[in-house]
Design goal:
It is elongated, with a radius of gyration of 24 Å. Helix 2 packs antiparallel against helix 3. It is built from four helices and no strands. The protein starts with a helix and ends in a 20-residue tail after the last helix. It is mainly α.
C-alpha cells in the first residue's frame, strides 16, 4: 500500500469536492496548485529537519514528529467528514478496459469479412459508445 494507495485517492478526493456548475476553472487550478505546493513544502521541510532532529534527539523523536502530525491530519480529516461531497464510485476502469478488448475479439471473430485496416478496438464500438 504505502503512499501509492493514498496519493491516487487524495487527488481524486480533492477533485470530488468541486460541484459541477458551482466551481470555476480558476478555483480548481488554485486549489490544485496549493495542494501540490503544500505536499512539496512538507516533503522539503521533512527532508531538511528530520535528519537534524534525529542527530540531536534520536530516532524516537525523529519518527515521533511525523507520526503525531499524521494523527493530527487524520483527526482533521475525520472532523471535516460531514462537509465533504461524497460521489458514488464509478465502475472499475480496468475491468471495463478488459471488457472492451474481449468484445472486440468476439466481434472480429464472428465477422471474418471485416475491414483489416480498421483499428482493432473499433470493433467494440457497437457495444461501447465513445
Amino acid at each position: 500500500l504505502g503512499t501509492g494507495g493514498i496519493k491516487s485517492s487524495v487527488t481524486s478526493f480533492v477533485g470530488d469536492q468541486f460541484l459541477e456548475g458551482f466551481s470555476t476553472e480558476r478555483q480548481i487550478t488554485t486549489v490544485y496548485h496549493l495542494f501540490y505546493f503544500t505536499i512539496n513544502v512538507g516533503s522539503l521541510v521533512s527532508m531538511l529537519l528530520i535528519p537534524l532532529v534525529k542527530d540531536k534527539w534520536g530516532y524516537t523523536v525523529a519518527f515521533g514528529i511525523p507520526t503525531c502530525l499524521m494523527i493530527i491530519a487524520t483527526l482533521i480529516f475525520f472532523l471535516g467528514y460531514p462537509t465533504y461531497h461524497m460521489l458514488p464510485p464509478t465502475p472499475n476502469v480496468v475491468v471495463n478496459a478488459f471488457l472492451v478488448v474481449y468484445i472486440a475479439f468476439k466481434v472480429k471473430r464472428k465477422r471474418s469479412s471485416l475491414d483489416p485496416s480498421k483499428p482493432f478496438l473499433d470493433y467494440a464500438m457497437s457495444t461501447f459508445s465513445a
